[in-house]
Amino acid sequence: MVIFAAVAMVVTVLAGLQLLVVTRGATQDSDNAVYAFLSIIGLGTPIAWSALNLALLATRHQTGGQYVAGLRLVREDGRALSRGDAATWWFCFNPVLFSWPTAAVTTFPFLFVVSLLLSRGTLAVLFVILTLCAASPVIALVSAMLDDQNRTLHDRIAGTIVVPAA
């Protein structure tokens, strides 16, 4: 989560710079610029987080946290992950992507935008994100407890196992 927090901070700083440029150094008032600022944080953080981890999975076969822990992912048959395997593992209820910190960083900006715009589309996105972020850690924990190899649901769907890094 330290790496996630760093990614969120970088995205927030970039969104802030964009806000300063659009409002000419905060000398002009613009509701649209504030909405864009919040949307950049809400969408940019999970996109940047996913891009970083997918790049690490494609090149090193491990996320940043797995690198620190000395672990990596391989296919069940022991072969290296393909890009498709990595994407499947990442997007299938993975609590590294869909987590409570992700919910906090993405939904609070969206909640503010929804409260100002009363947009059904934004409200639907907010609901989906909150549901995934609330359910994924629980799904991962329960599925690991029920599996004799402690594999989570996203590991079984992607056909991967976590092994010590060589």
Walk me through this protein's architecture.
- The chain has a two-stranded antiparallel sheet.
- It has one domain (2-164).
- It has helices at 2-22, 31-60, 64-69, 83-91, 100-117, 120-146, 153-158, and strands spanning 71-75, 160-164.
- The mean pLDDT is 88.
- It starts with a helix and ends with a strand.
- It is built from seven helices and two strands, in the order H-H-H-E-H-H-H-H-E.
- Helix 1 (2-22) runs antiparallel to helix 2 (31-60) and helix 5 (100-117) runs antiparallel to helix 6.
- The chain is mainly alpha-helical and 166 residues long.
The biggest beta sheet reads:
2 strands, antiparallel
**Tally of DSSP helical segments:** 7
Run of helices and strands: HHHEHHHHE
- What coarse outline follows from CA principal-axis ratios? elongated
The pLDDT mean sits at 88
Specify the structural class.
mainly alpha
Query: Approximately what portion of the residues adopt beta-strand conformation?
Result: 5-15%
**Low-confidence stretches at least 5 residues in length (pLDDT < 50)?**
none
Strand order of the largest sheet: 1-2
Please tell me how large the radius of gyration is.
18 Å
User: Termini separation (Å)?
Assistant: 24 Å
Q: Percent range for helical residues? A: over 70%
Count of all domains: 1
Task: Write the SSE topology.
Elements: H1 2-22, H2 31-60, H3 64-69, E1 71-75, H4 83-91, H5 100-117, H6 120-146, H7 153-158, E2 160-164
Antiparallel strand pairs: 1-2
Helix pairs in contact: 1-2, 2-4, 2-5, 5-6
Quick structural gist:
With 166 residues, this protein is mainly alpha-helical.
